[in-house]
Structure formats: structure tokens, C-alpha cells
Amino acid sequence: MGTELPSRNRPCRMLTWGNFARRRSLSWMRVLVAIILAFLGSAALADGAGEQRPDNRAPTALDVISGLYAFSRFQHDLLESTDLKGNAEVKNLAALRAEEAAKRDKTLKDIQEAIGAEPRIGKTAASAGLIDSDSSDGPAYVRTFYAAQIPEYESTIALLERYLKAPDNAALAEFARGQLPLLRLQVKDAERTMADK
What we know:
By secondary structure, the chain is mainly α. It has a single domain (49-196), classed as Ferritin. Helix content is 79%, strand content 0%. It has 6 helices and no strands. The chain has helices at 4-48, 61-84, 88-115, 125-128, 138-165, 170-196. 24% of the residues are buried.
């Protein structure tokens, strides 16, 4: 009888430890898979937005068109997010930016068709989890609204600047030159407004 209890308990302890070890192993595997997926997702987004190539070559017309379409998509997503939450200030600005994006896309479409390019349009990181704020109004939300735009502007401006160092299409280069002053002005406005809030 004295030996029966330990022999009954021993397999239970081993089984419990085994389950625990397996669960820990599965948890680590899930974390590893999540990290890999996040890495692949950011690589795809960088490619879709025409970010700097690893070989340091200048972006092509296709890269620029894809990047500008991705930026327009971000601005449209921004407008959709303010339909759900946001004060009059952010709603009006988002509507204005979406209207500008639609006009930009119309001109870009003509250039794209002339080139015969098929752009890759990915969802930007900012628009994937756009404007996640506890409050639907107030200074905190407004700061978040402007903060979400700044990296998108900076990325698009950098893309156009790199392209203009070695453009491969005259019409797109002219279009990019026309867009740069406007985008620079808008990102400065966003930074100034965010600092004031």
C-alpha cells in the first residue's frame, strides 16, 4: 500500500510536466510565427510603397506609381476612419485630403496607362490599424490623427526625392516635381498642428 500512492502519482506528475512543456513549446512557436509574419508583412508593405531597394538603386516609375497609389489609399482610409470617430476638424481635413488623393490618382492613371505599368498596391502599416484611440474626440484623438499621417507623408516625399535623382519617365518626373512642394507643405502643417494640440 505504501508504494501504491507514489507509483500512481508519478505518471501524473510526468504527464503534467509534459503538458506544460508542450504548451510552452507551442507558445514559443506561436510567437516565432507571429514575428516571421510581421517581418514578411512589413517587407511586403515596403515593397508596395516603393521604399528604398536593398541594392540602393533609384526607384522605378512602377515603384513611384505603386507608392503614390498606396499613399492615396491611406488618405481614403483616413477619411473612412473619421466617419466612425472624430470631430469636425479631423473630418473636414480627411475629406479634403481624400479629394486631393482622388485628383492625384486621376492624373496618375493617365501616366500609368501611357507607361503600361501594373502597380502593386498594398495596405500601408498606418492604415492597417488606423487611428486606434480610446476617445472619439478631444486633443488626444486629434494628435493621434495627425501623428498617423506624418510617417506616410515622409515616406512618400522620400520616394519622390529618390526617384527624381534618376527618373525613367519624363511625365512622371514632372508630376513628382509638382507634388513635392504640396506634400512638404502638408506634412509641415500636420507637424505644426500636432505640436499645438
